Amino acid sequence: GCGWLGMCLARNAPGVEVYMSEQPAGMEHLQRNIDLNRASGLPFSTVHAATLDWGDCSACELFQQRWDLVIGSDLLYSEQGLSDLPRLFSRLAGDTTRVLYAHTLHRYDHLDVEFFKALKAAGLECREVGDVA
């Protein structure tokens, strides 16, 4: 993606360390967006980008750190993500980590049910919040 969610967080919480991740194919686009925002004067000195291949997380620097908060939005768009994304969330989450993920229901109906089953199988609790109408 474009990093919109992470950049909004960084813009509204100056000084907070924000790490945005992207799969290898999208990393150049993400870094360009961060650079453009920095060049426009936004306080992004604590914003970082890291490559994260959901299917092969063995060499990712993000797993060497403890996280207070992991956030994401609408990241599921393929069958491969059904197993990779819950496993990724589980690996990033420590004992005190809160994972907040916004998922648009019915965007890909055929993936929704299986995704929620995979979250449960990974030991992650899922709660529906907000207006679903």
How widely separated are the two ends? 27 Å
> Sheet with the most strands?
2 strands, parallel
Number of contiguous helices: 4
What's the count of strands?
4
> Which residues sit in consecutive blocks of at least 5 with pLDDT less than 50?
none
**Average pLDDT taken over every residue:** 86
What would you call the structural class?
Answer: alpha/beta
Structural shape: globular
Q: How much strand content do the residues show?
A: 15-25%
Q: Could you characterize what this model shows?
A:
With 133 residues, the chain is an alpha/beta fold. It is built from 4 helices and 4 strands. A two-stranded parallel sheet has the order 1-2. Helix 3 (79-92) runs parallel beside helix 4. The mean pLDDT is 86.
Write the layout of secondary structure elements.
Elements: H1 4-12, E1 18-22, H2 27-39, E2 47-51, E3 69-73, H3 79-92, E4 98-102, H4 109-121
Parallel strand pairs: 1-2, 3-4
Helix pairs in contact: 3-4
Could you name the key traits of this structure?
133 residues, two-stranded parallel sheet, alpha/beta, 15% strand, 37% helix
Summarize the structure.
The protein is α/β, with parallel strands linked by helices and 133 residues long. The chain has four helices and four strands, in the order αβαββαβα.
